Amino acid sequence: MKKLLLFFSTLLLLNLSAQSKGKDYSDILRSKSIYEINAFLRDAHPDDPRRSVLKPRVMDMMKEYIKNAKPGDLKVKQMQDWLAMLKRRPSTKISFDEMNAIIKQKQIAKYQKELQVGRTAVVYTPSNPKNVYIAPAATTTVAAAIPDTEAAEFNMLMAENPSEHKNKTVKILNSLFDNDPNAKECIVMIENKSDCNIIVRIEGIGTTKYRLPVPSHGDNSIVVEKGDYLFTSIVCGAQYASQKTIQKPLMVALGSSSKK
């Protein structure tokens, strides 16, 4: 009787584990995909018995991939990071706070480097195909370029003199290092995943307004006063608008690349 109860309990656990994320992992033990097994380890219940089999298996698969990878393979770094995490924890899943900490450290490294070596301004010209989004062709119409109406303003915002840029960078670094919950300001980081350079407009109460230029496939940061803001932008011709309450560091990702 005990064995029967254990059998049904295991089956229930397996079903709940797969259904919790809406994915079918019923055949996961036969999988030979690093990415599929890695996803299972992130999604599965901590007590799922398949973990004891699949975790060492996927770690061996990652080691084998790294061993046989060609020079310059960009996946190697990811596999190494995953292996390091799997040696310390059940899966490669990280919490929201951990992700924020990683982003924070990357931003600190970025701005510390800028202080040391300076920054080259990004030129934003509508005639450059990279700065004009080409709309996908419909079945009956010809694809057309969406005109860039913010090029001059983008260039002006990006063209900070060295003194202005240094002051801004120091302010951002101070905000990144500041963990005081009573601080009146905090940092906002915008990641631009689109094929177009953009300007993000951040409007608060009264005359409080900020403009942040963000290069295509890049990011930029700004320190703002805490409060309620309306974020707006034109991302490859599409209007973006969102109300946000800023009381702690915030990261916003906009757009998606047309490249596959």
From TrEMBL:
<feature type="signal peptide">
    <location>
        <begin position="1"/>
        <end position="20"/>
    </location>
</feature>
<dbReference type="InterPro" id="IPR046647">
    <property type="entry name" value="DUF6759"/>
</dbReference>
<protein>
    <recommendedName>
        <fullName>DUF6759 domain-containing protein</fullName>
    </recommendedName>
</protein>
<keyword id="KW-0732">Signal</keyword>
<dbReference type="Pfam" id="PF20545">
    <property type="entry name" value="DUF6759"/>
</dbReference>
<feature type="domain" description="DUF6759">
    <location>
        <begin position="163"/>
        <end position="256"/>
    </location>
</feature>
